[in-house]
Amino acid sequence: MMTTSNITAPATPSDYGDWSAEAKQTWLWDGLVSDSTYKAVDLPDLVVPPLSEIPNRVKVVLSTTELSKTLEYTDDLMPEGRPKVIHEFGSAACITMTIGSNSPYTGVLSPGHRSIGLVRMSLAAPPGLRKSFIPGAGLKFLIDRQPSLDVVAVNHTNGQGRNHNLFANPMSHDITDGHNELRLPQRLMATLFRRVSPETRRLRIDHLSLWDSAGQRHPRPISPRRLVLRPRVEAARFFRRHPGEDFRFTLRRLPDDSPLFDVVAEDNQFAEPTPIGSISCASPFMASAGGDRLFFRHWIGEPEATVR
Can you give the CATH number for the domain in which 39 is found? Predict the structure, then answer.
């Protein structure tokens, strides 16, 4: 059985950190994701990992050093030999995020800003488990000569029941409000993660206001308190036409210029959640061995940013 710990992927080139955002996207897409696309017969099963893989995964979640890498590691690829404990298999695409003129924020969230990167859509747990369909999105915004700005978002750690529509519900990096009814596995993971982060159900997005795509650091960054990825009706409707199908097959047929999410900001300045931008595909979605080795850093804050 294939697992992410035995998937091999090329290491990022030694001078990769000095590249432009466009060059990084080209290498990640052409040299990593699309170059290792799974054939239909080789697509990894979305099932519980075999017993032989359990020790590797236990080692990751019990080790403070390994958990700290989730917050501190800056490479765009997973450390060699490290398994994805959750969100193991998914599908990736190139994306463009465009911010509207109404945004009061800075960095890649500044008015009129356009960012390029990748998105990886995945599930937190195998869908065969009862009420375990838990969609997630890893977003990687690429920056000239700087580490990527990553965002990890889910709708609910308890999932959305038997609804297999990947775009049925909004997703966010912050699921503290209204998401308190955790089952035993989620409570256990929260306890373990609390050793390296004081907030186990909320990641920060200050870094999005600190840098723009050209690698320029803003002297006075301003960040929203919370961002929500609100699925576009086009994507949700497309999935409704393919109920129960493996989400990776459905994503593969999604038109490669499809709108995916509206970017919605919540802060004290706005009386209501306010759309400030959108995220669209810039390529087809592909399920691949290289895409399953993409690493998305879990950010816990940038002290320089003013959060509204």
Answer: 2.40.180
